[in-house]
Amino acid sequence: MAPIKLIIDTDPGVDDSMAILAAFNSPEVEVIGLTSIYGNVPTAMATRNALTLCHLAGRPDVPVVEGAHKSLRGAAKERIADFVHGRDGFGNTNPPLAQAAAAPGSAAEFIVGMAGRHPGQVVVLALAALTNVALALHLDPQLPEKLARVVVLGGAFHCNGNVNPAAEANIYGDPDAANVVLSRLPNCWMVGLDVTHQCLMTAGQIEGMAGRGRHGTFLRDITQFYLGYHRKVYGMEAVYVHDAAALAAVLDPTLFDWHAGGVLVVTDGPAKGRTIRDEGKKAWVGGNEWQGLPPVRVALGVRSERLVSLVLQRMMQ
User: Does residue 104 lie in a domain region?
Assistant: First the structure.
């Protein structure tokens, strides 16, 4: 089969770097572009970091297109996760940054353009707030029929969030955009904290990347700060595998147990960003806001050891 044409919507970020470099090493996908968005770092820094990762991968031909700087409501990112990823997004390692420029246009325009050029073939791997994808849906109402799939890193359904007890960070970053995407895409798959918190990469595995493959030492180095965050906050000698787990859902969906149902996101109040799924266990009497929503496929189980092994192999290839 031909490789999947993949757009990675990203806010690199240590764990985004893991996913992006692993994607470049994966024959199942052809990375046709990176689009940047705020989250782990501000949007402009996300663009520079994405360009640097393309350079490190030996793929300066892959376009990087800058995305939104604010949410759909026009709000700036409330919290930049420099305490997780470092001020530079690369664990305060300050590597030389690529001098290339971003491609012209907006991230939303790029997504629409690629989906139109390759109808039914493009998968968007959304690793941050869903603002760019929501804006793309506004630009082209037929986009849901043109995209093969959107795989979202986000959500917390049967566990606490990681911003607060209610919300996972990417959904929290723009809950209005998440509702646009989840209510309009019949081909949306979500990989959230229910499964990523079951996928651990140990300190020993991280150290074992050094000197292996093209990127092993770089990834080992940038992950030290990220490991320090997990040590302090979670009390463990390991890191959660988030973004690379979402990539794994593109490469091998059989690694997960998927459960379909309509999903709504709380957009205001103390539970802002909470994802709530209709589990389909009851025939509801009377109407509710979940009825008529497309069935989002939500990952609730995972073969974690197989997933981590796959991710490590691709990162060090």
Answer: yes
Nearest by Cα to 184 from 156, 142, 148: 142
Tell me if residue 11 is catalytic. yes
For the full predicted model, state whether its pTM sits above 0.85: yes
**Assigned domain for 74 exists:** yes
Amino acid at 131: T
pLDDT digits (tens, 9 = 90+) for 62-87: 999 999 999 999 988 766 788 999 99
Q: Which of 11, 88, 140, 174 is catalytic?
A: 11
Residue 126: inside a domain: yes
Number of domains observed in the structure of the chain: 1
Average pLDDT score over residue span 268-283: 95
CATH number for the domain that contains residue 246: 3.90.245.10
Task: Please tell me which residue in 85, 197, 230, 242 is annotated as part of the active site.
Answer: 242
Long-range residue pairs from 140-146, CB within 8 A, at least 24 positions apart, any chain: 140/112, 140/115, 140/116, 143/111, 143/112, 143/115, 144/184, 144/185, 144/186, 144/187, 145/119, 146/115, 146/116, 146/119, 146/120, 146/122
The pLDDT value given to residue 78: 64
